């Protein structure tokens, strides 16, 4: 089977989990555990090949990808330590707003250390993508990297590759950007990846349960804490606007009636260094039963954040490749709704799952006008 050639932008914790996973699932017995889909079309979980990696941290740039994924400030669980050399040397990217000012000079090497190299130009990035033979580009940039994401999306369009936009910078869900990918006949899955079993999907499931059982949801919150660079980055509240929109709209979309802004709070809450890549989520939902009798649910969820992401991204990559094989461009409606928090069009998770299965089994997907 031909490999799916993948370029990674941002060699952080999520990239680490994804790269580890490709080696981990080389053992076929393991493929019965932890995958949403074992096979997607003709592609299995190990048919992903990394051919390009781009970062701006000096502890990663210039190293083989197999080594760079374990460099600080990465702190995710190591579930597969014996990663063979990939032959891919991490390339210096273009910094732009990808590194927040408060992320430097952090104790214990937990912050960023910009590489002592000039930023790569758009021309250099495009040439590197083309030379690598990459077919799908994965955006793993930090939250708030608005300029950097748009820079790399331009590079993707010029290089002629599909995209999985894992970050809450709105590309697939922006009609102007989506139209450009559709006109170029390049698929995109986005925006802002949902975890395999994370805060958003649990919050959506419980909100849907309230609706299904006739219980009006009156107030709800989702508070998240963690100790990885993502949570440290989000201490700068100015970088949070699109993230909060993405997470909030994902929950609002499954409610029977849209909640007033003052009654719903969804978003990252604080950075706790010793949690490392573990994410703690605290959910509360308040509603009224028969006779307007009040009730509430409180949930505490503990997950390793980056493997939770990788479990979805590995499927998004394969769906993107299927679209390339079939000549389908633009935002992939079903996969985007199933795999991402902020797709162009929201559906319930059951409907999005069926749409994704239909996409996988069908010859083409009809892209809405």
TrEMBL record:
Signal peptide: none annotated. This is Inositol-3-phosphate synthase. Residues 198-306 form the Myo-inositol-1-phosphate synthase GAPDH-like domain. InterPro entries: MIPS, Myo-inos-1-P_Synthase, Myo-inos-1-P_Synthase_GAPDH, NAD(P)-bd_dom_sf. It comes from the Bacteria. It holds the Pfam family Inos-1-P_synth. It comes from Sphingomonas donggukensis. The lineage of its organism: Bacteria, Pseudomonadati, Pseudomonadota, Alphaproteobacteria, Sphingomonadales. SUPFAM superfamilies: Glyceraldehyde-3-phosphate dehydrogenase-like, C-terminal domain, NAD(P)-binding Rossmann-fold domains. Belongs to the myo-inositol 1-phosphate synthase family.
